[in-house]
Design goal:
The protein is α+β, with helices and mostly antiparallel strands. A five-stranded antiparallel sheet has the order 1-2-3-4-5. It has a five-stranded mixed sheet with strand order 13-12-14-15-16, sandwiched between helices. The protein starts with a helix and ends in a 17-residue tail after the last helix. Helix 17 runs parallel beside helix 19 (416-430) and helix 29 runs antiparallel to helix 30 (647-667). It is built from 30 helices and 18 strands.
């Protein structure tokens, strides 16, 4: 996104008019004053300054420009705020990917077809032919108001009733197939996909109907039938009921995720409006992203049956997060722990009493439902218990297998204190000692030749010094802040500082994240970031864009807004991981020092020296890792030369290894005999 576009949106947005849509303002001299929309107050302390296009609350301290205000009041990100305010101002964001008009028309036709189908289903349930659907709804206790709110309907027992109705409205069979409303037999005949089922329309967060779920009236299989994958409907990226629940989620600071439509419908009917359904057993990262803007805490309400819990455990173990490379997909286990740390969410598990699902519990024992939700346990505790319940405590192999299954959980913990805490819990549940668990945590994984150092090892011997030849987090599976060469953080040779203990990026991703978020501070080191230090395709593409003239001066959200969607999502995760979303207006003194004649810019909130030091240290670690890789390659070559008896080749390789070793000493000098070595807790 060009800087001019962002500036144009700011200039063309009347901040008084914008804020006036949310706050009752009154003029006081050249400014406007009202009650702050961001905190409770009785005396107005919220002021809008039309001349500068800014606002400030002298009560809670919030302030900024029109874009900042819209982001805060609507709980949206920078891109969404910019897009919406540009639309209101009639400004075309030229570098934003624009969907082809023909594609937009096709998409709108599918939305219209779904809306027409929903009206057909709602009307059908009121007719005589809809009696079976009404009776099922009555048996399940759905009242009329809830039926209307969720647009519950009925698909009659007919192969083409819906098709005939939509054809009469001008929709083509191809459009109905594309919307997932029709199926096609092996002989090529079209038929209504939903027949003799209670229908639950599925909407996106804005309330547009994108698909349907149909519940069988009797014992027909499947019990629930969803729309197929369509240009509108992707079950893994939707949450049923979110369009009705988002305000309550925001108010309560918590979202409860259940499994089925009826669970959501019943919860809302009985006043629990912050409940949504994942329409499946495992919560996806896309679904977490949907709700994290409304609430930081997610509670998964699981049925007590073993099959459902086992499926959830599999989902938690195999979910993948953002640590993925174009050349190798890195499976993070358990991914949901990594996801909650990266996306700054708190995920808890609430288990229903045996034999009860949320629908039944809310109706028959509401106090038990509330107790289950309020007593939800952190996902790590729940996972450890779930694994421990399957262990035969008198079988050493069973206990050993259980510990190995729990190791990925421990490796994704953010600090040593938590590692020791949960290692002790695991040991207690399995009837062993914490040291045994920590020793297993420090072993080399079977699928890699890498040596690594875990937080547990570092805690025992007091050293954070890198092991020669240590692998990256992608290889070891460990992303905790151990200070290893695979994990960026802190100063080289010293333990990580508090800032970097919360992130989970490998070195190259962390360096690129800093460049994306704090580019104005890191121009001096940009030429030193060589292509051979960056292996991920996405990181390389971001680096290429950062070097290009088209992005000159752009950083953070202002850089991300102009990227293609897939790359923008990745860059946004990097930006958030290093705190790049926090920015502030440039002060007059800073403008004078930079000799800028332009209006005040938005600049990173973190201090330049702090960011530059972190970036330089991370670059040094990458360079050291590269040397380690080259040395290991030469070791393989010299073994091959020895086996073949090629003496000249051995001499050449040894000379090359000697040169690289001398270079490596620059990154890892020997301890001083006089001064305390900051890499070790022992000192001289």
């Amino acid at each position: 996104m060009a800087r001019d576009s962002v500036a144009e949106v700011r200039e063309q947005t009347d901040i008084v008019e914008l804020v006036g849509g949310y706050v009752q303002l009154r003029r006081t001299g050249s400014s406007f004053k009202g009650l702050c929309p961001f905190h409770q107050e009785k005396t107005p302390s919220f002021v809008v300054f039309p001349q500068s296009g800014t606002f400030n609350c002298f009560g809670c301290g919030k302030g900024g420009d029109a874009l900042t205000f819209y982001q805060e009041v609507e709980h949206v990100d920078f891109r969404e705020a910019l897009t919406e305010l540009a639309r209101r101002a009639g400004i075309t964001l030229s570098t934003t990917p624009v969907r082809d008009p023909a594609e937009q028309d096709r998409r709108q036709r599918l939305i219209d077809a779904n809306a027409a189908a929903s009206r057909f289903f709602q009307r059908a349930i009121t007719l005589d032919a809809g009696t079976p659907g009404r009776e099922l709804a009555e048996r399940r206790g759905i009242d009329a108001a809830t039926m209307q709110s969720f647009k519950v309907g009925y698909a009659p027992e007919s192969r083409n009733a819906l098709m005939r109705n939509l054809e009469a409205l001008g929709f083509t069979p191809d459009e109905m197939v594309a919307a997932g409303l029709l199926g096609k037999s092996d002989s090529g005949q079209l038929y209504d996909r939903f027949r003799r089922r209670l229908i639950f329309p599925i909407s996106d967060r804005d309330g547009e109907i994108v698909g349907f779920g149909g519940r069988a009236l009797g014992d027909e299989q499947p019990k629930y039938l969803n729309s197929p994958q369509t240009p509108l409907f992707d079950k893994s990226g939707l949450l049923y009921g979110l369009h009705l629940a988002k305000d309550a989620i925001r108010e309560r600071g918590e979202v409860v995720v259940v499994e089925g439509y009826m669970d959501v419908v019943t919860a809302h009917q009985f006043g629990h409006h912050n409940v949504v359904a994942a329409m499946g057993t495992a919560l996806t990262e896309a679904q977490i992203n949907l709700v994290k803007r409304y609430a930081p805490r997610i509670v998964l309400a699981l049925d007590a049956d073993a099959a459902g819990q086992a499926a959830m455990v599999r989902g938690l173990e195999t979910a993948t997060g953002a640590v993925e490379h174009d050349d190798v997909v890195v499976a993070i286990a358990p991914g949901i722990i990594s996801t909650q740390q990266r996306l700054k969410t708190e995920i808890r598990i609430a288990t229903m009493p045996v034999g009860k699902d949320p629908d039944e519990l809310i109706r028959r024992a509401p106090e038990s439902w509330e107790a289950a939700i309020s007593g939800a346990r952190p996902v790590i505790d729940w996972l450890i218990d779930a694994f421990a319940e399957t262990v035969q405590l008198d079988d050493a192999n069973s206990k050993s297998s259980a510990v190995k299954r729990m190791l990925p959980i421990l490796r994704h913990l953010p600090d040593r204190v938590m590692v020791h805490h949960y290692a002790a819990i695991v040991a207690r549940k399995l009837g062993t000692v914490p040291e045994a668990v920590l020793d297993e945590l420090g072993r080399r994984p079977a699928d890699t030749g890498a040596r690594r150092r875990t937080p547990a090892q570092g805690a025992r011997n007091g050293s954070n010094r890198d092991l020669e030849g240590s692998a990256s987090p992608a290889q070891t599976g460990w992303n905790g802040p151990s200070g290893t060469s695979g994990q960026a953080g802190g100063r080289f040779g010293a333990g990580p500082d508090d800032r970097t203990q919360r992130r989970e990026l490998d070195n190259e991703s962390y360096l690129v994240a800093l460049l994306v978020a704090f580019r104005p501070y890191l121009e001096p080191i940009m030429p030193q970031v060589r292509d051979d230090l960056i292996h991920s395709g996405r990181n390389r593409e971001l680096l290429r864009l950062l070097r290009s003239e088209e992005s000159a001066g752009l950083f953070g959200e202002r850089l991300i807004i102009g990227l293609p969607d897939e790359l923008a999502d990745y860059a946004e995760r990097l930006n958030t991981a290093v705190g790049g979303e926090e920015a502030r207006p440039e002060t007059d003194l800073e403008r004078e020092e930079s000799r800028s004649r332009e209006p005040a810019r938005m600049i990173p909130k973190r201090f330049p020296a702090e960011v530059l030091t972190e970036a330089a240290d991370t670059l040094r670690q990458l360079q050291r890792e590269r040397l380690g890789i080259l040395l290991r390659q030469l070791q393989e070559e010299i073994r091959a030369a020895q086996a073949s008896g090629d003496v000249p080749e051995m001499s050449r390789i040894q000379q090359r290894m000697s040169d690289l070793s001398r270079t490596l000493q620059f990154f890892d000098p020997p301890p001083s005999p006089v001064f305390r070595d900051s890499r070790s807790s022992t000192g001289p």
